[in-house]
Amino acid sequence: MTDSEVMLRTAAFLALAVLAGLILAARRRDHVPALGALAALAAASFVVTSARGADAWLGGFALPLTALCVAKAAFFRLFARGLFAESLRLRGRDAALVAFTMAYGLWQQVAFAAQARAGSASVAERLAASGFELWVMALVVLALRDAWRGLAIDLVEGRRRMRILFVAGGACYLAAAVLVQSYNLALGTATPPLLVLANLALIAILAFAAAWNLVQPRTASWLDPEPADAQPEALSAAECRVLRSLQEEIVERHVYREEGLTIGALARRLGTREHVLRRVINRGMGYRNFNDFLHAYRIREACARLRRAEDARLPVLSIALDVGYGSIGPFNRAFKSRMGMTPTRFRRSAGAASSGA
Description:
The chain has helices at about 5-25, 30-50, 55-60, 60-70, 70-85, 90-120, 125-150, 155-185, 195-215, 235-255, 265-270, 275-285, 290-305, 315-320, 330-340, 345-355. The protein is mainly α and about 350 residues long.
C-alpha cells in the first residue's frame, strides 16, 4: 500500500469508530443506535479487510471482521428503516436478514474466493458469487425506497431534509459503485488505485462530517427523536390561523373521514401551502407523521362508536368505512397498534364494562 492509502484507511477507520460510539450514545431508546453503530463498524471493517494482504496481518481477526464487513448492507438497510421511523424494534425476520447476508457474504469472500484462486470454481458458483453483489445493491435500493416513500407523510422538516439528502447521496454512491463494478467485470480487472483512494476519502469525509454534526451543541441531533408534544406557542400568527381552520375542519366537518386524504389536498382545502400545514400539524398538534394524525382521529371516533349502545348492532366494517378506511384490514391493523386489541374485542370489553356498571 502507498503512504496515501495507509493514511486514508487510518483516517476512515478512526472516523467510523468514533461515529459508532457517538451513534450508540444517542438518546433514542429503541434498536436504531445499535444498528447505526453496527453499520459504522461494518464499514470500518471494510476499510481494514479490503486492504491488500489484509488476511496475512489480521490473522485470527480476519474471519470475524470479514463477517461484520459483508453484513454492512443488511445493517444499513435496518438502520435506514429505523432512522426515519418513530421507533424500531428488531424481529426474527430482521435477524434472519442479517444472518443470511452474513452467511452468503462469507461464502463469497472465503469459500468461493479460494476456489476462484485455484481455478476450480464452476459457472454456477461464479453466478452465485455475482448474485451477492446484486443482493447488496437490492438492500441499498430498498433502504433508499423506504426513505423516499415516507417523505410525503413526514411532518418533521429536519427529518424531511435528511430523507432527501439520504436518498440523493445514496443513489449517487450506488450509481458510482455499479459503474465501477461493471467496469471491473467487463475488463476482468481490480478497482483502479485512484478509485480506491477516492472511495476511502469519501468514506472518511462522510464519517467525520456525521460525527462532527453529532457532537455539535444542540437540543437534538439528526439521530435523536424530536419532542412529540404540541408547541402551538412556536407557531406564527398566520400558522395559528391555519391551526384554527384545521381544527374547525376536524370538529365540524370531520375531514379525517375522507378516504385517501393527502396533506396536499388538505392544504388546498385550507387555502395554505403544504410546508405550512406540515409545521402546523407537527408543532401545533404534536404529530410527526400525517398518517398518524389521520389514524388518531379516525380511531378516536371508532372507539366512541364501538362503545355506543345505538351502534351495537352495526358491523365493524361499516364503522371502519364511516371513519375513513377503505377496507377492514387497514382499520384492524391501525386499531390494534393503537389500542392493543382488535375492534371486536374492544367492543366486547366496552359492553362488559357498561353492563358491570
